[in-house]
Description:
Layout: E1 3-4, H1 7-11, H2 87-90, E2 100-103, H3 115-122, H4 125-148, H5 155-170, H6 179-182, E3 183-193, E4 196-198, E5 215-224, E6 227-236, H7 242-258, H8 265-276, E7 280-283, E8 286-289, E9 291-292, E10 296-300, E11 311-313, E12 328-336, E13 343-344, E14 350-353, H9 365-377, E15 383-384, H10 385-390, H11 397-405, E16 409-412, E17 415-416, E18 423-432, E19 436-439
Antiparallel strand pairs: 1-10, 2-19, 3-5, 4-17, 5-6, 7-8, 9-12, 10-11, 10-12, 12-18, 13-17, 14-15, 14-16, 18-19
Helix pairs in contact: 4-5, 7-8, 9-11
The structure holds cobalt (II) ion (CO).
Cobalt (II) ion (CO) binds near residues 2, 330 and 332.
Amino acid sequence: MAAQVPTDALKELKVNDAAKANGKGAKPAPAGDDDDHAEDSDDDAEENAAGIGADGATGAAKKKKKRKPKKKKKNPTTQTEPPSVMVSQLFPNKSYPRGEEVEYIDENRYRTTDEEKRHLDNLNTEFLSDYREAAEIHRQVRQYAQKSIKPGQTLTEIAETIENSVRSLTGHSGLTEGDAMVAGMGFPCGLSLNHCAAHYTPNAGNKMVLQQDDVMKVDFGVHVNGRIVDSAFTVAFESKYDNLLQAVKEATNAGIREAGIDARVGEIGGVIQETMESFEVEIDGTTYPVKSIRNLTGHNILPYSIHGTKAVPIVKSNDQTKMEEGDVFAIETFGSTGNGYVRDDMEVSHYAKNADVQHVDLRLSSAKTLLNVINKNFGTLPFCRRYLDRLGQDKYLLGLNSLVNSGIVEAYPPLCDKKGSYTAQFEHTILIRPTVKEVISRGDDY
Ligand SMILES: [Co+2]
């Protein structure tokens, strides 16, 4: 989930709307026919099948219904499609795979073998296994998404498949009070198309259909005990976008490479920008420079809080903020064929309770009720309108807007570059451990 450059810092940025190239626009996907895509995962009918109510059967004493010996349900050892098996069953005793572990360099090289740093690492076993579990869930769900997402699907269907898979793999449906706080979605599944870079997800009734020509950013979070893995990728079906995607993937990897203890975020931004902007992309006969979107940033992650206090810019700046031992960062970069600058656009879907707002007296009773629902089910984790719908809430918009206006809840509107442009995103979560940097969400896909 993207963080935005704070407004006063933005004033220092020069906005250059004079785009060199003027692309023919990708129209927002028109509303189209629903395509029902019934993919069932339930294969556990074996438990209740045999021998119920055979008592009253007429005649034929000979034909006694044979009671099937109750099969002991074995723990599955492989994942289903779509994913439905808890990863805690696939990896007994919390033996989750590690992320990519990268040794520190220069004056921090000693840390990998240092006795004291290794001891500190060993104090973090729960933190690490929660993080590795969340990361493994992210990988399994996104790899299924990469295989299965096709033009013609509705965005609603795509989002719900991803979100329901995440919930199944954590073993927490989030339907009972407080369950979504134990483990589940770390933030809503963003499905932002074309010129929209971030924070779009369908609200109820949305009929948008993914098109062959679309470039879609899939950005979702998985949390286990509040340890949020934030990772994103971009889907496109046409090869004309390859260079755009390549630029952003390499820029994100450059940012990950530069990250480490004592690394200054402004310098990391410079390396990201240099990598990103060494690319151009030809789309339908027009060549565009790939620009870093300068008012979007990576960010640190705190327990139950997706945006901490540190930002990781994706353009060069003199921000001297340092990464420190124990930090968790989402390194995400966005490339664009447009202005390289996003604005709020379209209907809001994403919200989160503001972590640092104290008690406010609410007059509107619907706002009070809704705040109670948010407190119990999400705390400070981001949620979207669909998550309120599935909890059985309705007619909550007035209350929700009142919470936003009183500053208790923050709205995260979709962030879009100029119409007709294309944007791409790749993102990983990294742990700045005492001994090594662990790219926790790394997979063989990206
Ligand atoms: Co993020």
